[in-house]
Queue: 4 jobs
Job 1
Amino acid sequence: MNVYFLSGLGADERAFSFLQLDFCTPVFIPWIKPEDEEETLPSYAGRIGALIKEPAPVIVGLSFGGMLATEIASVNPSAKAILISSAKHHKEIPFYLRMWRKFPLYKFVPAKFAKAVSKPLCRLFMNARSRKEMLVLNNLLNDADVDFNLWAVDAVLNWKNNIVPPNVTHIHGTGDKLLPYSYVKADYTIEGGTHLMIMNNAKEISGLLRSLIRS
């Protein structure tokens, strides 16, 4: 059974490398370039969704990928979207992050400086707990496309979704610093799970995915 995976902001399939996915055939959807710097998250999600040819796909979205999966699920009731460490409603993004849409200073930050600053911030919010996790995280940060990330940050901050499709299931950790648990309504809770629980709690999440996808 094919299961389609959308990774987090600036990441790729390596973000899922700690999971045990022997119960499915994982298909990792690559990022495509935004049409322009003004493209909205729903518009981009529509183009990503067009890459998935199955009429009733199962989509696992991590963080930013979960927001895209929500938009895909909203226009395709036959899809099954599973969100991990993500948000499915604009109010699940903390107000202190959303406020930056009124002061979009990040748009004027030079790419080299943005990349240098993003690394320590990501390490602070991601909570890598082992040497292997840190190695994967560092490689993802080093390979990140800064221009894509800056566009995506703007798209997320200006995301206005206020409808949660019934075909969305949300898994979230109580220790998430980037998207705090108190802001979201999770269907499944990972106690102590951080924003990087896809790695930290890989065994638990693998078992949960297996159960949700098979059902």
Job 2
Amino acid sequence: MSHITSAFKDAVHDSQACFRRLLTAMSEPGRVVELDRCHGFGEMMPATSQVLLAMADNSTPLWLSAHLQQDAAAVENIHFHTGASTSAVESNAAFAVISQQDLQQMEQQALSFNEGDEEYPDRSTTVIIETDSVDSGASFVLSGPGIKDHTQVQLGSLPAWLQVRLCEQAEQFPLGLDFIFVSGQQAVAIPRSTSVEVAPCM
């Protein structure tokens, strides 16, 4: 039984629109952008599906967390609409997607994504994390390129190890992971060049 569903109505125009919004998110860390051009594949959030539609192709090694790997609708639609392989190992993945269900059960040592090297730091993995909110929950102060002084962002219910990982990120620059947090149709990026601190409690 096929699980193929529709993607972008206008493949070129919608893909370009999503790509521009993602560029905005990456160049202005902490800014929430709306990705509203199609529904999600299977149980995958709409924003996650649109990030992959805009940025993945048949040369993109893609890693999916366990819940998504078992989601036939998500996997079939990714293969059909992008051509990307979903069988990449963590250390080889250009993109990785962690579902909200899997995130709460994972531990930091279980992840071994590519953080780039001194010669090719840009070959690191971009990690897409599905969370329950990008306007409430764990709060962080961001600073660095693309941010005037500082900005604050909330990223929902994140496990403690991931909060620590985000705060340690800038120490490795230019190495490290680029993160895109998604919730529903919304996305917010924290590139590896961004300094992250847990926001003080008021």
Job 3
Amino acid sequence: MDDIAAGPFAVGPILVGRAVPFRGKEASAIAKSPADGPIAIGPLGLAGDEQADLSVHGGVDKAIHHYPHDHYAAWRDELERHELLDAPGAFGENISTSGLTEADLCIGDRFRLGTALVEVSQGRQPCWKIDHHFGRKGINARIVTTGRSGWYYRVIESGTVQQGDGLMLQDRPHPRWSVAHTFQLLIGSGHKGDPAAIRALAALPVLATSWRARAEKLRRD
């Protein structure tokens, strides 16, 4: 295992949110607040956390959203110290750490998160709600070009987590597929130059179902 990704990494505030009116008829739970005490983790994520549109958010492959606090400094520079960046949660994440980014972990990595066991399933594909949340255009596109996406976990073993708990790598079965590389291939434009990688991702069983479908579509296009 890579020493950088092994950890343990201290987990910041545990963030949850309820779906509330967001824009017109649209609702969202992107605005999240710190939760008190140990929080239960089940197959669909953190107790008390919601997703408004279950067709694209939530589910077993997107149970917990992790966004690196490491990216906040760059965002502050680019967004002129936007007030949302004063505390974790600006990108709708459930947890945040320092010292671990998309380049440092791989699809299929298993981590002990508090007492739960979680597995990296995909990078976070941004949507229009991020731009609306920040009140700025172009943030969504900037995530795609920079790869500062964050990632999702599925839950392998239920448990609990609270602020200050450790995040510790347990297993790395697919070291070829960093989240950064996979994101660049499937969400960026990397697929155009590496059809063999796209074929391999379409058959990677630990990759989230929706991203395997995306790889299959890119393979056929």
Job 4
Amino acid sequence: MTIEAFYEPLDTDLFASSPSTAGPWSPGFQHGGPVSALIGRAFERHGTRVARVTVEILGPVPVAPLRVATRVVRPGRRVSLLEGELFSGDGDGRADSPIVRARAWRIAEAPAELEPIDNAEAPAPLPGPGAPGLSGWPGAHLDGYLSSIEWRFVRGSFAQPGPGEVWGRPRIPLMAGEDDSPLVRTLVLADSGSGVGSQLDFAKWMVINTDLTVALNRDPVGEWINMRSRLQAQPGGSALADTELADASGTFGRGLQTLIVDTH
């Protein structure tokens, strides 16, 4: 069976989840990338460009039908604040507790005469097809999300301690019958930053993010997205993954994840 997308629309706000959404920890639970992109897609339907998205993951997201609800909480001509919720199942969501909550700032485009400012280091060039690709760790589920992305590592890997740098692009679209927007392509990949940059042994440690924040100073261009990721972790605290997001033209944004670190 050929899987053509992460999701298939069942109704205006109800979507079937394909096995490709499954994360590395279990074939029954979704990776945060497609989940974040699904809410981001809903936010985009409200008008001006999305400049920042924060996704709060309240619990495991099953590989099952998902319903998305969004609303404007602060309307405005230049800026507006949106909220979204994700529910599991094919009910209307009103009697259920959300499994994901999110907020997004929509910000009007800066004037065309603004002089560009870029103080970030340029990413490494996109490697050829022979570059190191997907690698797992003992017990990882590789047949879902991880295999649905084409990975070309510049340094590090999912099985090798970070910091790391990788170029990636989805092999399938988020939604059946649609082309991914720049925001959707970014969100599908950005939640992988903690894996790209991790210096923790996933076979020994449970490392799961509770959230994802992506801020964009411009929309990415082209299919490929570069992620340069690094991790900070301390005993008695938690962990933080910081990811620079870039394309062939340079850096366009940043991802930040707060992580639980515990023994299995």
